[in-house]
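pls ignore typos typing on phone
flavin-adenine dinucleotide + seq
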Amino acid sequence: MATLKTDILILGAGIGGFETFRTLSKLLKRHNINKKITIVDENNYFTFVPMLHEVATGSIEPTHCAIPLRELIYKTPHEFINARVEYINPEKKQVTTHEGIIDYEFAVIALGSVTNYFNTPGAEQYTHNVRSLISALKLKYELLGQLNNTHKEELNICIVGGGYTGVEIAGQLYDLALREVTQLYPHKKMSITLIHSGDTILNYMPKKVQDKVARRLEKKGVEILLNAKVSKVSNDAVVLADGKTLTSDLTIWTAGFENIGPHYMDPKYCCQKSRIQVTGELTMPDFPHTYALGDNAEILDPHTHIAYPQLAEAAHLEGRYLAHHILRTIHGKKNTRFVFHSKGTLMPVGDWYGVAQIGPFILFGKLAWWIRRTVYVMFMPGFWRKIRIVFDWTVHSFGFRHLINLKSDTDYTD
Ligand SMILES: Cc1cc2nc3c(=O)[nH]c(=O)nc-3n(C[C@H](O)[C@H](O)[C@H](O)COP(=O)(O)OP(=O)(O)OC[C@H]3O[C@@H](n4cnc5c(N)ncnc54)[C@H](O)[C@@H]3O)c2cc1C
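k done
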């Protein structure tokens, strides 16, 4: 690819980048503005990350949370480039990808975050994670490989991190253990341990939720270790800071994520904790046409001065805000700052059980689980895609999980 010029460049087609593209392309069309959007992602598909733990445990299929990006642009004048971003230069308004250089008028940096192993020896090498579709599939095939291994009776799984993701995976795994493992893999005894460094799981949730979810996990057979810090991981064990060693045939790391701003940019543009510092209008200071949103941006709440959370809901709203911001800027109009008000938290804990915190109300059980899946389906673009997903899920709720192991000699790399 030679040097390319574009009007609006969106880097990363995850939740924030995807929403910016979706809203902005509609706005440009409606206002009859002839500007070209170029969206760049290292994958040729959009991934809805919050569902990946369900892919990893066979509750849903990969196609239920991923969309080929060319399907989004094929009826538009816009462009998708399947390339890895390597360097962003906001001064020159230029981005280097492994396919070539792109000059832009406006750019939105929405590259997300990656797993943080906190320099724990062995963690990167011996653990699995669910940060990308490929890593979720790797985990799934490892899990199925272990279940199909008839030489070992026991399968010990350790999950590191008792935040949302750790709890969500624990929920899926206990369902798998109680149903599919009991019926389809009767030779296997599966144990699940959730290791958390704090004194309560789900730190950010109300105490009522923490207690109720912990009780449910324990009732379903998950062992929860609190105030337990992992100091080392090996092929078959997790070692804790107090010296205790846990046998682990499969270790899943959900303990943290690292922000990736400095990977692509001169560190002088990144603030603390590696997030790209932006103003209340999500622009980089000194570079009003270069924006950042989602996990890779630090956007401070104007009242509390605390950064907005790295959540799908925030990335989605920031994407929508930026689409309108760019349109107003093109029209030469002033913008107001972005303010994030969360509508609530939706979290599944296994199949058919969830927690929904909406304003002051907290719901537990089937309805909460159903609301979360419905909200997700509404987010997916396309009427027929929505119908297909709802149909698949409905039919599938009467059967077993998707437990086909497609792993061959292929090496699945992130
Ligand atoms: C397992 C899990 C469960 C979660 N559950 C929830 C939940 O229930 N609710 C919630 O609100 N939030 C949840 N989150 C957090 C939420 O997923 C993120 O906050 C959200 O995805 C951030 O959106 P984003 O657009 O910043 O980044 P992402 O959605 O991660 O998108 C980043 C995009 O950039 C692309 N990319 C990255 N690097 C490059 C590169 N160098 N070149 C080209 N492309 C690149 C990626 O392929 C990806 O498409 C969860 C996260 C995880 C990991």
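The pocket of flavin-adenine dinucleotide is lined by residues 12-17, 40-43, 47, 49-50, 52-53, 84-85, 110-112, 130-131, 164-165, 294-296, 310-313, 315, 347 (CB under 6 Å). The mean pLDDT is 93. more later
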